[in-house]
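To illustrate the input format used throughout this study, we show a single complete record. The first block contains the structure-token representation of the backbone; no residue identities are included at this stage. The design step must infer an amino acid for every position from geometry alone.
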């Protein structure tokens, strides 16, 4: 990996990302049940019905993991806070041990000179709130505001940055339309409501954090570069619809106070009454936007009801997830986002990385190549004037890859899920050489 810090603008932030349920061990420390626990316990949803009860046992091994981050030379660490660890029933009674845990995490980062970059929500909705309709229920915005005030009232004075919700597309579409993530619904009305309420909750949380006096607040969206599998007009239309649902819906709400027409064609009739009046909250000004990027998708027309698209396999090299390696998409998203939505607003790549079938003693050269190519793509965007301020790899360590269980290894650090031993991989060493 032939980079030095001098290849990036002065003050550029390098870091890694994780999320609470994927690493902490949700069974420890008094956390309440979540929609992921019941989703995973339902046969057929998750590979081998694996869950996050133990995960990487980060709850007990936090100091080891923070030392790994420090040895890597990370400037910042993107972690998430578990709603059900802080508020086991989603509202009401606080779990003091949960607040203490995040307090120690933030202090442990600061002691090591690492900037704490907090995400409030990364998918483990407390079961008590899922029982009330979860993201389908408009009240989720005020429940989330309460959680935001509770956790940020404790750590908000020391975090470097904060974003309310990781990857709203996954919360809305993947979980309510595709049914691939908890709560596993396949319902267009639920989807429309979840996609809108997730933005409403985002906006309210930003306002709560502003009222607490916090700064450096942003949003984190995930993107897949969509390309047509042919030239037929219906293929081009299908590709535009995919792009609108995946990539433009949330940016539209956050930065243009509107949703793309290609999405309204399908979801419009199912959005909650008065949705147009929520944009004052949704579009509350931000200090930065984070882009999570992994791959592109080739899209073709599909007969039947809206959205009339299907994904088709492409010819490019693939990761362990079966995702094509397409670094150009990262460059093009950065350029398009700045040009069409965010202008001079600072951008961050808040996730980028690959799953690879790593063992603890084989060098993960494929990951080094992947990261090198994506860092090059980021540099190209910077050279074209994009105000990119930092880059976070997903992930610090192998962890629970949701419906795919523990097989898909995204880490810079190998985790043996029997002994829970951590072993830095070749990619970790390659980054450490120039991050330190
Ligand atoms: O593991 C996930 C993470 O939770 C959110 N972004 C994508 C990663 C890889 O699939």
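Output of the design step:
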């Amino acid at each position: 990996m032939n980079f030095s810090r001098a290849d990036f603008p002065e003050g550029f932030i390098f870091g890694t990302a994780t999320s609470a349920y994927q690493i902490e061990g949700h069974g420890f420390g008094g956390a309440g049940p979540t929609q992921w626990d019941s989703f995973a316990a339902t046969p057929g949803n998750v590979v081998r019905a694996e869950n996050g009860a133990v995960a990487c046992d980060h709850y007990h091994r936090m100091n080891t993991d923070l030392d790994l981050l420090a040895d890597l030379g990370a400037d910042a660490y993107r972690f998430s806070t578990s709603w059900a660890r802080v508020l086991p029933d989603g509202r009401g009674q606080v779990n003091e041990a949960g607040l203490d845990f995040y307090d120690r995490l933030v202090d442990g980062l600061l002691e090591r000179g690492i900037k704490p970059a907090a995400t409030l929500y990364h998918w483990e909705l407390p079961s008590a709130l899922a029982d009330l309709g979860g993201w389908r229920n408009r009240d989720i915005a005020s429940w989330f505001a309460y959680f935001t005030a509770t956790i940020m009232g404790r750590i908000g004075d020391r975090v470097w940055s904060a974003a309310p919700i990781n990857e709203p597309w996954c919360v809305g579409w993947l979980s309510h339309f595709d049914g691939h993530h908890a709560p596993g619904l396949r319902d267009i009305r639920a989807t429309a409501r979840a996609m809108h309420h997730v933005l409403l909750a985002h906006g309210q949380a930003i306002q709560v954090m502003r009222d607490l006096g916090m700064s450096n607040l942003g949003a984190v969206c995930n993107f897949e570069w969509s390309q047509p599998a042919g030239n037929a007009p219906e293929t081009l239309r299908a590709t535009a619809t995919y792009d609108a649902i995946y990539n433009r819906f949330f940016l539209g709400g956050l930065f243009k106070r509107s949703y793309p027409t290609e999405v309204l064609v399908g979801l419009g009739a199912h959005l909650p009454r008065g949705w147009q009046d929520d944009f004052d909250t949704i579009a509350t000004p931000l200090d930065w936007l984070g882009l999570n990027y992994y791959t592109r998708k080739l899209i073709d027309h599909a007969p039947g009801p809206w959205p009339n698209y299907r994904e088709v396999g492409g010819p490019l090299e693939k990761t362990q997830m079966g995702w094509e390696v397409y670094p150009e998409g990262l460059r093009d998203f950065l350029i398009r986002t700045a040009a069409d939505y965010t202008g001079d607003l600072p951008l961050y790549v808040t996730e980028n990385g690959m799953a690879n079938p790593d063992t603890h003693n084989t060098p993960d050269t494929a990951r080094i190549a992947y990261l090198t190519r994506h860092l090059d793509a980021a540099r190209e965007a910077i050279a074209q004037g994009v105000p990119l301020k930092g880059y976070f790899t997903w992930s610090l360590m192998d962890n629970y890859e949701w419906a795919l269980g523990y097989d898909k290894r995204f880490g810079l650090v190998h985790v043996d899920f029997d002994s829970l031993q951590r072993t830095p991989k070749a990619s970790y060493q390659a980054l450490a050489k120039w991050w330190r």
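Structural context for interpreting the output: Residues 168 and 250 are 7 Å apart (CA to CA). The longest helix spans residues 188-211.
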